[in-house]
Amino acid sequence: MIIGVPKEIKEKEFRVGIVPSGVKGLVQAGHTVLIEQGAGSGSGIADGQYRAAGAGLAPSAAEVWAKADLVMKVKEPLRPEYPLLKPGLILYTYLHLAPLPELTQVLLDARVTGVAYETVRLDNGALPLLAPMSQVAGRMAIQAGAHFLEKEAGGRGVLLAGVPGVAPGHVTILGSGTVGVNAAQMAVGLGAEVSMLGRNLPKLAELDSLFRGRVTTLASSQQAIEEELAKADLVVGAVLVVGACAPKLISRKMLGLMPQGSVIVDVAIDQGGCAETSRPTYHSDPVYEVDGIIHYCVANMPGAVPRTSTFALTNATLPYCLAMADKGFDRAMREDRALLRGVNVHQGKLVSREVADSQGREWSEISF
Questions:
Q1: What are the residue ranges in the chain where pLDDT is below 50?
Q2: Which of 51, 92, 332, 363 is exposed most, by the fewest CB atoms within 10 A?
């Protein structure tokens, strides 16, 4: 199989879909890897390192897309890439289709098979390809929030750690999954006062034990959210409904409960965001203000630390790529239900119930 890796074109996206060790593994298994020149430069990986591992280098993205049987990326295709899609291509990347009806239709019309990292799901519900970037984003959420709480950056001038004689800042985390847990670890490490809201009560019990009283765990409800917003300096939106749009837990009216100059970091923005006032932003212009509340809604937060993120991501994604290349798509799907759950579109059909429900579309079961 020919695996193609183009350079990411999303603004300030410096990650890349494969590292040299991954190239070497695929080549040793008898496959061809074609990488766009310069694709790894943002992650500190030179073309020569790919060449030494056995990859071929292409001068343009168009050549990569044209020759590849499987394109391995990080982010969803953007409009300049739409004409490069072709029938029968396997697109293996983060897709986050639920809030993107235009891209969904483009993939359906092109008869591309889209395997979304974020919906590859094990039988126990774990998300092995989403987890590494959720870990990064959760930790970055506290860093970003702490920065934009500074007065010079537009915030209310609160130090999350506090100092002797002055109370620490209050961090409210909406969601108890991987993003939420990693955000809590960072916030606790800084010395902030931390509350976490979630709907999975057994998980909250685990976290209560894990953090030994350093995090207040609360069953999520509108009343609980409103009470937390009233005292929050930083709110981290960490909710996830796999494959579907994130629920809108914070309405515009509820912003009025928050202290002026407080910050919302909406990590759920890839799935539409959990605040009614959230809209995607970029690293070059990451924040905006609504009713006196700072919103940080960068949709590719881990792209700011590409060296860490690229290696963490590709550690997880490579084994599934190898399975599809070695076994062929159909057999790989038959033998791995987790990978099968990652398929969102296939041969012109939408096969994700969650995406279909989010967009009001029809969907079809997929089986092999």
A1: none
A2: 51
Contact (Cβ atoms closer than 8 angstroms) between residue 155 and residue 292: no
Instruction: Quote the tokens at residue 13.
Output: 């996206």
CA distance 88 to 62: 16
Does domain 2-113+312-359 sit in CATH 3.40.50.2020? Answer: no
* pLDDT value of residue 368: 78
* 270: its two tokens: 């890839």
- The three-class DSSP label of residue 25 is helix
pLDDT digits (tens, 9 = 90+) for 241-274: 999 999 999 999 999 999 999 999 999 999 999 9
Catalytically active residues, by annotation: 96, 270
Mean pLDDT of the chain, nearest integer: 97
Query: What is the distance of C-alpha 256 from the center of its chain?
Result: 29
Phi, psi of 228 (to 5 degrees): -70, -40
Of 3.40.50.720, 3.90.1170.20, 1.10.274.10, 3.30.70.1350, the CATH number of 131-304 is: 3.40.50.720
- The answer to whether 55 touches 27, Cβ cutoff 8 Å, is yes
Q: Per the structure block, which two tokens stand in for 152?
A: 């010079």
Comparing CA positions, the residue from 198, 248, 231 lying closest to residue 358 is 248
pLDDT digits (tens, 9 = 90+) for 200-255: 999 999 999 999 999 999 999 999 999 999 999 999 999 999 999 999 999 999 99
DSSP β-bridge partners for residue 71 = 4, 91
Alpha-carbon Rg for the chain, nearest whole angstrom, is 21
Q: Do domains 2-113+312-359 and 131-304 have the same CATH topology?
A: yes
In 29-112, alpha helices (H): 47-53, 61-67, 101-110
**Cα atoms found within 13 Å of the Cα of residue 278, Cβ hemisphere only:** 30
**Residues ≥6 apart with Cβ < 8 Å to 108:** 345, 348, 349, 350
pTM more than 0.85: yes
